[in-house]
């Protein structure tokens, strides 16, 4: 049996928190709970959960602030719960480094499927001993480790999977929808702009000048490709 995964649920609405907790218990997860940002950060440090389900609309410190604080030190997978329907709100969350988001009202079943998909990616060890090298970039697939000119770069699970898909076949053009498939085990919603947010993060981390990328290139009107120059 694989080890039981620890999921930290951060939600200030008692009803929703209870629903999510019960459902995750049933699904076989070990559930930790916090109802505000400081509590979430404390538990994240003390308990080192495998995944954080984070409500965006928290009193005081909101979900964005929590994500920013977490990402300063950790690449723990984060799924945001958002009541906001604006695309831009989700983009902000993804740009801050959230791995995925679920819009309220959501079905607990959908949330569990998303959690499993993100955990699978975080756990995935693809191939054996495979290392992709492209220019200054090295992607150690089994270790899910990325370095540029020998310096380690910390990517989230989603960023890693997108970069790996691109770097494995330099020069091949991928559409946003294809890249989206790479990061979602389950696709409930086609949300291609999410890919742009992940690409922006990847460039910030691996390009020497993110505004003039030399590794991950935009193919206008189509998508992205890894340089084959
Ligand atoms: Ca809330």
Keywords for this entry:
229 residues; alpha/beta; Rossmann fold; Arc Repressor Mutant, subunit A; 2 domains; 5-stranded parallel β-sheet; 4-stranded antiparallel β-sheet; 8 helices; 41% helix; 21% strand; globular; binds calcium ion
Describe the structure.
There is one protein chain. The chain is of the alpha/beta class. It folds into two domains: 6-123, Rossmann fold, CATH 3.40.50; 131-226, Orthogonal Bundle (Arc Repressor Mutant, subunit A), CATH 1.10.10.10. 41% of the residues lie in helices and 21% in strands. The strands form three sheets. A five-stranded parallel sheet has the order 2-1-3-4-5, sandwiched between helices. A hairpin with a 2-residue loop joins strand 8 (145-148) and strand 9. Helix 6 (157-168) crosses helix 8. The model is unreliable at 186-190 (pLDDT under 50). Bound molecules: calcium ion.
What gyration radius follows from the Cα positions, in whole Å? 18 Å
Q: List cofactors, ions and other ligands.
A: calcium ion
Shape: globular
What is the fold-level CATH name, i.e. the topology of the largest domain? Rossmann fold
> What is the correct CATH architecture of the largest domain?
3-Layer(aba) Sandwich
SSE string: EHEHEHEHEHEEEEHEHHEE
How large is the count of helical segments?
8
In which range does the helix fraction lie?
A: 40-55%
> Biggest β-sheet: count, sense, barrel?
5 strands, parallel
Distance between the termini: 46 Å
Tally of discrete structural domains = 2
Oligomerization: single chain
Which ranges are low-confidence, i.e. pLDDT below 50, for 5 or more consecutive residues?
186-190
